[in-house]
Amino acid sequence: MSEIEAPLSSQPRRWIIKIGSSLITDHGAGLHHARLEQWCADIMTLKANNIDVVLVSSGAIAEGCARLGFKTRPTASHLQQAAAAVGQTGLVQAYESIFRAHGVHCAQILLTHDELRDRQRYLNARSTLQTLLSLNVVPIVNENDTIATDEIRFGDNDTLGALVTNLVEADRFIILTDQQALYTADPTKDKTATPIIEVFADDPSLLDIASSKSSSGLGSGGMYTKVLAAKLASRSGAATYLVSGLEPKVLERLFNGEQIGTLFKPRQAPISARKRWLAGQMKPCGQVFVDRGAVDKLIREGKSLLAVGVYKVTGQFKRGDLVECYSRLNKKIAVGLINYSSDEVAILMGSGTSRMLELLGYLGEPELIHRDNLVIL
Prior knowledge:
Elements: E1 14-19, H1 21-24, H2 33-48, E2 52-57, H3 60-68, H4 77-101, E3 106-111, H5 113-117, H6 119-134, E4 138-143, H7 157-167, E5 172-177, E6 198-200, H8 205-210, H9 223-234, E7 239-244, H10 250-255, E8 262-265, H11 270-279, E9 286-290, H12 292-299, E10 310-315, E11 322-326, E12 332-337, H13 342-348, H14 356-360, E13 374-376
Helix pairs in contact: 2-4, 3-4, 7-9
C-alpha cells in the first residue's frame, strides 16, 4: 500500500463508508466476495494514510434471503427479521476473514433509532465507536433489523450512515452504490440526463430530481433517501460523495482527489455545524457552576470541562442530558452533553480525575463534558 498525499483543502481524518444491498449482494445473488475484498483493500489504503474508517454495510437481509432461498425480499416484518438474523452472520464473517488477512480486526455494531435518539445511548454508542477506532478496529455498523420495529427503524442505511457521520464527527460520508452519480433526470428514461458533479447538499431542487429514482427490490433506499442522507450529513459539516462502488479503487481515487460521482458540499464548517446541531437538539436539564480557572480553560483554551473546576450543581440530569455551564458571576458560558448524572457530579465536583474510581466505584470518561460535545456561548 502506497502513501498518498491528499490534495484536499482540509486533510480528511475520518470517513463513513456506506455500501448498499444490491451492490454488496450482486442484486441478491449472495455476497460478492471479490467486491468485498477490493473495498476492504481500499479501506486499508485509507488506514495507511491515517484515515479512520467506519463501515456502514447493508446486505444482511439480502444475504439472508439468498441463504433461505427467497426469490424476492419479503414484505412481512417477521420474515425480514429472520432473514436479517441469518444473513448477518455471513456478512460479518466475510468482513472479519478479509480484514484479518490484512492484520486488522473488525467489530459488529447493530443500532436502532433509539440508540441515537436517547442521549445516554448516543454517548454510549459514540464512546464505543471512538474506542474501537483508537484500537485500530474497523467498526461494521448496520441497523438492527432483527429487532427493529416500524417505530424505531432507520428505514435505510443511507440515513443510518448520515447519523453515524455526525455521531463520530466524520468529515467524509461516502455512499457506494450501483449508480455512477446523481443525474439531472432518470437516465434510464431520459437520454438527455447528465451527471451532477458538485452541488450544495441543501439545494432544494435535489429532492425533486431524486424523487424519480426508484429503489431496487433488495434494498430499502433509493436516490431520494441518499439525497436526504447527504443533506442530513451536511448539517454536521460533512461532505458526501455518491459514487459507483463498481469503479476500481474508488476509495483510493477519492482520497487522491479524483472527481468521481456526485459531491454534496456542506455550507458550514464541520465543528461549528455539529455544535450548532447539538445545541439545538434538546432543552437543558440542569446547571453546573464552574470556577474562574475552568472558565479560562473552556473559553480561552478550548478545553473539556473537568470535575475539579465545578463547585455547584443544580437540577436533576442523567448521562447524556444537555447541561448549562455558569461562571461565578452567574453568567451562562456554555452548554454541553454531560457524561455523568447530577448525583455523580455532586460527588465528583472539586476533585481530580485520579479520584474518579475511588469516589464512584467505577472509571468512566475523564471529562464531565468533552470539548467535542460543548458549545461556548
